[in-house]
């Protein structure tokens, strides 16, 4: 599956909805056992959540948007399919969220490409369930520091941290993803799926048990004047960069 929401594959409500529908179609077609996630936009895997969905809108829209973000994470994180990320561009915040749900992460060896959860730099906070999967992946201390500082890691550092599993030359990323997929496909589906579920169930259940409360927390947080001002400043900064 190639993300194609130019210019930066931001996770708009429309993109989130279409992605989940496409994933569901693959899961329901038993001829598919795995999926490789990658980008069709040069230099960008995904720039993450679309800030325009969180700025200057009404509470009902914020709630709908956050429910779609939760749904994307849950569907990918608990998917019975083998999910391999071929990270062929920058992958901050929501891009990193998608990569973290995958069974295996391969990143293109380009020092301009970075990955991480940089929400704090924008004035917002990664949700507890994303924090949990970050901790599961890189450990508590590394996650605590990276989350507070909003750190983004180039490929070599991401590999050292365990945030990605492999770094390969950019022109080899898709062939590598296919060979990794072949290795995972050699395992019987039932045993691999049960093992995946066993490893991930507790983290997913944390969100499933309190989805509604998590949506309400997000809506009240994002509706605050101070947070809206923060987002406004960040969006103005992006506009100046473009200008």
UniProtKB/TrEMBL annotation:
Principal subcellular localization: mitochondrion
Pathway(s): Lipid metabolism; fatty acid beta-oxidation
Protein location: Mitochondrion matrix
Keywords (A to Z) from UniProt: Acetylation, Fatty acid metabolism, Isomerase, Lipid metabolism, Mitochondrion, Transit peptide
Pfam families (alphabetical): ECH_1
InterPro entries: ClpP/crotonase-like_dom_sf, Enoyl-CoA_hyd/isom_CS, Enoyl-CoA_hydra/iso
Reactions the enzyme catalyzes: (3Z)-decenoyl-CoA = (2E)-decenoyl-CoA; (3Z)-dodecenoyl-CoA = (2E)-dodecenoyl-CoA; (3Z)-hexenoyl-CoA = (2E)-hexenoyl-CoA; (2E)-tetradecenoyl-CoA = (3Z)-tetradecenoyl-CoA
UniProt signal peptide: none
GO biological process: fatty acid beta-oxidation
PROSITE patterns tied to this protein: ENOYL_COA_HYDRATASE
Transit peptide as UniProt keyword: yes
Keyword Nucleotidyltransferase (UniProt): no
Family under the similarity heading: Belongs to the enoyl-CoA hydratase/isomerase family.
Its biological purpose: Key enzyme of fatty acid beta-oxidation. Able to isomerize both 3-cis (3Z) and 3-trans (3E) double bonds into the 2-trans (2E) form in a range of enoyl-CoA species, with a preference for (3Z)-enoyl-CoAs over (3E)-enoyl-CoAs. The catalytic efficiency of this enzyme is not affected by the fatty acyl chain length.
The protein's name: Enoyl-CoA delta isomerase 1, mitochondrial
Native source species: Neotoma lepida
